[in-house]
Specification:
Layout lengths: L1 E6 L5 H14 L4 E6 L13 E7 L6 H9 L7 E8 L6 H11 L3 E9 L19 H22 L14 H14 L9 E3 L11 H5 L20 E2 L7 H5 L5 E3 L4 H4 L6 H12 L18 H4 L17
Parallel strand pairs: 1-2, 1-3, 3-4, 4-5
Antiparallel strand pairs: 6-7, 6-8
Helix pairs in contact: 1-4
The chain binds flavin mononucleotide (FMN) and iron/sulfur cluster (SF4) (2 copies).
The site of flavin mononucleotide has 23 residues, from α1 and β4.
Length: about 325
């Protein structure tokens, strides 16, 4: 049996979970390959019996994963599974992603999510979900990988009750849909536009932003150089700030630095309400006590130097 695990990651949480899933799946004797989304072509999909799709939660799947699934040619009933890591708002992912996978001719046989630490410029540090994914999460991910690899042949053999039921459309989903729609109706990046200062930029010696923009909005080899969805800035509404976080030379700045201060000291009440409820229901395992959440230290104040973040290593070995 051949299994492909396709994933996207920015800060490494989803990659780490994908590795554990791969390890679990491989323990059944299956041949497992892990690949970054950007390296996957549609032609490859036909070679596999089971395909995993994983990304961080950004409302639902990230825009690059969403586009990949959206443009995927119709598949012929191949089994698949979905997974993600997320912060405080995890409930919209599967109700959106599972129907999209089905609409493209795949048969989703399972799905699972894990909490992950959050690294965004204006978000508190430490964050509510800090410490995740931890060893327990990795064990659960291995178990999930094993389950998917074992279930797929059994489902083919007729045990169709092993297929997970469709994600529930409950109050939490609608509540989170309201919060997310409100954010997405903002026509620009709520953190303000990210702008590149050509004076500070070290291209071509450095090209880390260009190599890592999931939307391929950056091409500094062009004349004139292209940066962001507007050509000279990025105000994409998905709240991405990756290039700003990665630039080692502080050459990318936000038009309104006060944005990151805006939430200083403010407790994100809707996040907390959701999380408290998920904790009470046993979904969330709190590792950072609420009194230790860094309401006064947004990420960019807490982190001492540039770059604010480094991209995780391109390493898809999991044994
Ligand atoms: C731009 C952006 C948007 C995010 N949106 C959400 C969200 O809607 N809901 C949520 O629970 N977490 C959200 N997060 C948190 C990530 O899902 C979480 O940190 C995840 O574990 C990151 O995975 P990675 O390390 O693989 O990139 C967001 C993070 C970023 C950077
Ligand atoms: S990461 Fe910064 S220095 Fe490097 S190419 Fe991008 S803007 Fe220039
Ligand atoms: S913020 Fe930067 S990395 Fe993110 S989509 Fe825009 S240009 Fe790309």
């Amino acid at each position: 049996m051949k299994i492909l695990i396709i994933y996207y990651t920015q800060s490494g949480n989803t990659q780490a979970i994908a590795k554990s899933i791969a390890r679990g799946a491989a323990s059944t004797g299956a041949e497992v390959k892990m690949m970054r989304l950007k390296n996957v072509t549609y032609d490859m999909l036909g070679e596999y019996d089971l395909i995993g799709f994983g990304s961080p939660t950004w409302k639902a799947d990230t825009p690059n994963m969403h586009a990949f699934i959206d443009k995927m040619p119709k598949q012929n009933g191949t089994h698949c599974f979905a997974f993600n890591t997320h912060g405080t708002l995890p409930h919209l992912y599967f109700p959106i992603v599972i129907p999209n996978l089905k609409n493209h001719g795949l048969v989703p046989i399972g799905y699972k999510d894990w909490y992950g630490d959050v690294n965004m410029p204006g978000m508190p540090k430490p964050y509510y979900t800090g410490g995740h994914p931890d060893e327990q999460d990795f064990r659960e991910a291995e178990e999930f990988g094993r389950e998917m690899a074992e279930n797929s042949p059994r489902i083919h053999a007729g045990e169709t009750d092993l297929i997970y039921p469709d994600p529930e459309m409950n109050d939490k989903v609608f509540e989170q849909a309201m919060i997310c729609s409100n954010m997405l109706l903002c026509p620009t990046n709520p953190q303000g536009a990210f702008i590149r200062d050509p004076e500070k930029c070290k291209y071509p010696k450095c090209h880390v932003c260009m190599d890592n923009c999931m939307m391929q909005y950056i091409d500094l080899s062009k004349d004139p150089q292209v940066f962001g969805n507007r050509g000279d800035r990025c105000d994409d509404c998905h709240e991405c700030s990756y290039c700003f976080m990665l630039c080692p030379f502080g050459a990318i700045y936000t038009e309104d630095p006060k944005q990151f201060e805006r939430d200083k000291g403010i407790r994100h009440l809707n996040f907390e309400v959701m999380l408290d409820r998920d904790e009470a229901e046993g979904k969330f395992r709190r590792l950072v006590p609420v009194e230790e959440v860094g309401f006064d230290t947004p990420y960019v104040y807490w982190h001492p130097q540039r770059p604010y973040m480094k991209p995780p290593k391109e390493d898809d070995e999991f044994t």
